[in-house]
Queue: 2 jobs
Job 1
Amino acid sequence: MQSFDFLVIGSGIAGLTYALQVAKLGSVAVLTKGTMIECTTDYAQGGIAAVLAEADSFEKHVKDTYRAGHELGKLPVIRAIIEDGPEAIAYLLDIGTRFSLGNSSGDRALENLDLTREGGHSERRVAHAADSTGHQIMLALIAACNKNERITIFEHHIAIDLITQHHISNADGFVPGVSCWGAYALHTRTNEVFAFRARKTMLATGGGAQVYKNNTNPSICTGDGYAMARRAGARLVNMEFIQFHPTAFYSPEGKTFLISEALRGEGAALRLQSGETFMERHHPDGCLAPRDIVAGAIDFEMKKRGDRYVLLDATAIPAERLRERFPYIDGKCRKRDVDFTSQPIPVVPAAHYFCGGILATTDGLTDVHNLFVSGEVACSGLHGSNRLASNSLLSGLVMSLRAGRHPSNKDEVAFPDIPEWQDVGTFNENEWVVIGYNREILQSIMQGYVGITRSRRLLKYARARIHNIYQEIENFYQHNVVRHEVIESRNLAIVADIIVRSALTRRESRGLHQVVDHPGHDDENFQRDTII
Ligand code: FAD
Ligand code: SIN
C-alpha cells in the first residue's frame, strides 16, 4: 500500500490543477492511465471561454451558456464559474501557458490575448493557442507538476475502484454515508494491483465518448470515473446529454479527428455535397448556431439525402491566414490529402463530450465523503442539456482551483484497515474474446441506437442488448485476474447502461436529447435533472 495526503486520478486540466493547489498542503499522488500527456485536454483545439474583451460582460456569457443549455443549467453555478473565468486564465498565464496574442506587444497579459468566436457565443471570448490550446495548457501544467517535489506521478496506472466501505466490510449495494479512502490501481505494465491510501481523493478521469464507435476522443475516454462513482454509490446526473461535435473529419474507416468550431468562427461555411449552404434553414445564427442545433441539422440533411458527409468550406479565408491560424488542422488534413485552403473538408458529427456526470458542487464536493470530482466527469449544472463551446476547459480549471482551495482539504481522516486487493481466478485466454468482441458491439449499438436522434423503441432494444453484454463482461471480471482491457470494457458497459436508462427517463426532447416519440420541451415535467 502507498500512502499520500491526496490522491488525484487523472492528469488532464482538472487533475493537475487540483494537484498543484493541494501540494501546498501535503504529499500528492497522481495516477494516469498512459503517459501524463495522454488526455482529452491535450486534444483541445478551439480554446477556453472567459469574459476578457471590453465589449463583453459576465451577464452575456451567462446568458449564452444558459440559452445553449436550453434553460436546464443552474444559474448560480453558471454565474460562479463564469465570474471566476478571468482569474483562472490569469493562473494559466502565470504558470506559462503560451496563448496566442491579438497584438504585437509580445506581452502575455490578459488584455493582450487574441480572442476567437465559436457557435452560440454572442461575443469573441475564446482565448486560444492557435488550434492547439489544450496542448499548450498541458505543457505548462506538466512542467509545473514536474517541478513540484510534493507531487509524484504514477504513469500507466489505471484506477480500478475507489476504496470505500464496500471494500472494508464487503458491503453490497447501497451504503449510507459512504467515505472514500483512496483507490485500488493496476500497474498496466506489470499487472500488479496497489492500494493508494489518501485523506482526499480527486476523481478527474475525463469523459467517456469511447462508448460510441465514431468519436473525437482519445482512447483513455472509457468513462471509468462515472462507473467507479456509481459503484461507490454517488449520484450521476443528466447522462442522456451526449454532445456530438458537428465537424469531425469524415473517414470511411472511422479514423476521424476534430475540425475545430473556431474554423466556422473565422468564416468557414457548411455546405451540402452539391455546394449549397443549408444552416440558414435551421437557425438564424446559421453555421454559428449552438452545437446541438448544427449537429442535428447535419444529421437531418445527411439522412434526408442518404449522404455520408457534408462539406466544411474554408476556401474564402486567405490561405496564409488559414495556415497560420490552424496549423494543426492544416497538417492533419494534408495527411489525408485534403488541402483546406483550396478544397472543402468532408465532415460528419461524432460523439465528443458528456454534459452530464457525477453530481458535484462548484467546489467539486460529491455525495461521497472525502471525494472531490472535477472536469468532464463532474456535473455541477453549468452545461444543462448542451454545452457551449469552450466552456469545458473553463469548468475543469475553475472547479479544480476552487476544490484545491476548499477548507476540507485540511480535514484529519480516520482510516480503517484497508485490505489488499483480492485478485481471484486465473487468466482464461480461451474466453478473452468476450472482452474485445463485446466492446466493439457495444460501441456499434450506442452509435446506431443511442445517437443524435433517438426513439423509445431503439433505446429499449439498446437497454436489453447492453444488459447481456454487461453480464458477460462482469462474469469474466469476477472469474479472472484483473486486466486493463477488462476494467475498461466493464466500465463502458456500465456507462452505456446509465446513458440509456437516463435517456428513457426523459420523455421530452431537449438540447442533445432528441426523441421522435416526444418532440419539443415539456417544461412542466422535465425542466429538471435526471438522476441515477
Ligand atoms: P482529461 O483531460 O481527459 O483527463 C483525464 C485523465 O484521466 C487522463 O489523464 C486519463 O489518463 C485519466 N484517467 C481516466 N481514467 C482513469 C483511470 N481509470 N485510472 C487512472 N487515470 C485515468 N473543450 C474546451 O473547452 N475547449 C476546446 O477547445 C475543446 N476542444 C476539444 C477537442 C477535442 C478533440 C476533444 C475530444 C475535446 C475538446 N474539448 C474542448 C473538451 C475538453 O477538452 C475536455 O472536456 C477536457 O479537456 C476534459 O478535461 P479533464 O481534465 O476532465 O479530462
Ligand atoms: C472545438 O475546437 O471545436 C472544440 C471546442 C469544444 O469542444 O469546446
Job 2
Amino acid sequence: MSTLKDRLRQKIEEHRPRTTRLLKEFGDVKVGEVTISQAIGGARGVRSLVTDISYLDPMEGIRFRGMTIPETMAALPKPPGKDYPYVEGFWFLLLTGDIPTEKEALELVEDFKSRSAIPQYVIDILRAMARDSHPMVMFSTAILSMQKESKFAAFYEAGYDKMTAWESMYEDSTDLLAKLPAIAAYIYRMKFKGDTHITPNTNLDMGGNFAHMMGIAEPYDDVARMYFILHSDHESGNASAHTTHLVASTLSDAYYSLSAGLNALAGPLHGLANQEVLRWLQGVMDKLDGVEPTEEIMKKFVWDTLNGGQVIPGFGHAVLRKTDPRYQSQREFCEKHLPNDKLFKYVDMLYRVVPDILVEQGKAKNPWPNVDAQSGVIQWFYGLKDFDFYTVLFGVGRAIGVLANITWDRALAYPLERPKSLTTDMLEDIAGIKK
Ligand code: HAX
C-alpha cells in the first residue's frame, strides 16, 4: 500500500463526518439565491459546488489547498538543481492537503513509472486516426480508448460499495496521470515531428521524462513541471472540471469522465484560448509583413478584432477580476529565461494595451489577462511552435486537478448531479411579466 493512498484514506475518514453533519443537521441552510440573469447566463456566481482541492478568489486568484502559487512552488520537494517541484508531489498535495516529504514524492515518482506504459492498442488507434485530426481529439480519444482498463468499472461490475469506491477511482486516476505525458508526447511527435518517437527514460520524473519524450532540452523539463502544476486546478466550476465532475457523478469511471472534461477544455473560450493567442499574434505579424508592431499598431489590431465581433483571446475571465496569478507566474519565468524574446515583448505589449481597450469597449467584466495569454510564448520559445498542440499540454495539467476532484467526489459519495430547469414562460411568470 502506498504512503499516499494510506494518507488519503486517513484524510477521507476524517473528512466524511463533516460532510455528513452538514447534510444531516444543516441541509436546509441557504448558501445563496439564483437570479434570472444567472439562470440564463451560465450560472455565473451560483455557489452550488463543493471542493476542497482549490479555491478561486476573484481578486487574489487560485489557492491550491490553501496555498498561493508561489507558496505551493516553494513548499513542494524539487528534483535536484531544479526550480520547479515534482508534479508527482503536487498530486500528493492536491489529494491530501499535505506537503509530501522528498521520500514520499520519490515514492510516487516510482509509482507513476510503474503505471506509465501505454497499451499498444492506444498507439494503433492514434495511428488509425486522420492525421489532420486536432491533437485534442487524439488526446481525448486515446484516453477514452483505455476505458476497458478501468478498475472502478470492474469494481462496479463486481458489486459496488460506496465506502470503498474511491480506491478504484484513485487507482484509475493515478494510472491515467502516469500515462498522459507519454500519450501527449506520442501525439506531438507523430503529428509534428515526422512520426519519429523517443523512448521514455525511466530514470526521470514526470516533468523530466515528458521533456525527454518531446525531444526538448533543459530547462523544458522545468517548463513542463511549472506548466502542469499551474494548469492543474481552478476550483470545480470551470467547464473542464465541471464536465469531469458531472460525468463522474453518473458513476462513470475516470476514463469516460476525463475524456469528456478534455472535450470541454478544447473550446476556444476555455483551454483552446492558449493556441488562439498565438494564432492571433501570428495573424498580426503576417499582416505587418516584417514590420515591428508599435503600441499604436497593436491597439488597431485589438480594435479591429473587437469590431469584427471576436474576443481577444487570453483576456477576461468568468470569476477572476484581476490579472491571473498563473499569468504572472509565467511572466516571471519569461522575464528570467526569455526577457528579449520578440514574442514575449509582443505579449507584454498586449498586457499594456488590451485592458484599457476592453474597459473602453465596456463589455468585459474583467479586462485583465488570464493564464492563456502567456503560456504559448514559452512553448514557442522552446521550439514548440505547433500551437494546435498547446491545449494538450493544458490537458495534461488539468487532469491532475479534475482527477483529484473526482477521487474525492467518490470518497464523499457526492450524488448524481442534476440541476433543475425552468421554461421561459416560468421565468416570465416569476418576473411578473404580463402576457
Ligand atoms: N475580448 C472581447 N470581449 C470579451 C472578452 C475578451 N477577452 N472577455 C469578455 N468579453 C465580452 C463577452 O464576450 C461578453 O460579450 P457579450 O455581452 O457581447 O456576450 C461580455 O464581454 C461580458 O462577458 P464577461 O461576463 O466579462 O465574461 P464571461 O464570464 O461571459 O466569459 C470568458 C469569460 C473567459 C469566456 C471571456 O472573458 C472570453 O471570451 N475571453 C477570451 C477567451 C479566453 O481567453 N478564454 C480563456 C479563459 C481562461 C480559461 O478558462 N482558460 O482555460
